[in-house]
User: Fold this.
Amino acid sequence: MSIIAIAGSPSARSRSNALLRYAAQALARQHGAVDSLGLQDICAEDLVQGNYAGQDAARLRQRVAPARVVLIATPVYKASFAGGLKALLDLLDQTALAGKIVLPLASGGSAAHLLALEYSLKPVLSALGARHILAGVYATEAQVRLDEAGQAQFDESIRERLDAAVTAVSLLLPAREPHASYDLGRLASRLQLAV
Ligand SMILES: Cc1cc2nc3c(=O)[nH]c(=O)nc-3n(C[C@H](O)[C@H](O)[C@H](O)COP(=O)(O)O)c2cc1C
Assistant:
């Protein structure tokens, strides 16, 4: 099972990355390791110039290709998703997200641009072939508090929405232990059912 987490914020103390980490860690516990990448994985010049032929872009495409699930996080900048993330997505193939489950996450200064995921990021994900884009989670700055060390405290409502989003992804994936390993007879006797 392959899951990749793409961080779209350039900030070292990033709230959207905190949302991403939470979801990635929860999915890693159930489905195994999650690969993580961000803007720092592409040299700035290649990002700005959209250097599709560059080595970093090739490595990016290689890492995204095997993923069944893509978690993608962005800050809201000027009522849209972050330009750095757009520059990274520009380096993918046209159908790079086809067949993948995509969970978008975003943080904004306020709720004013709550719909930015819907009108700005989701159309781009769709243009890259994604057909299974989950509802996503948007948090305001006040709902994600970062301590000195950058550890995040989420408001209860955000934690619940993150947990629901993680569950939605999990339900679409096979568990780490294949279901075939269930012994129906044993399961039934545990549940005190007759089969
Ligand atoms: C250049 C810039 C533009 C921003 N524009 C908006 C905006 O239009 N709407 C909004 O709600 N927040 C805006 N913000 C606030 C960020 O979205 C908010 O601080 C967010 O939590 C940052 O995410 P990060 O910590 O993951 O980088 C902007 C911040 C910056 C630096």
About this structure: The beta strands are 3-7, 34-38, 69-77, 80-81, 101-108, 132-133, 137-140, 144-146, 152-154. The mean pLDDT is 91. The two ends are 32 Å apart (CA to CA). The CA atoms of residues 4 and 63 lie 8 Å apart.
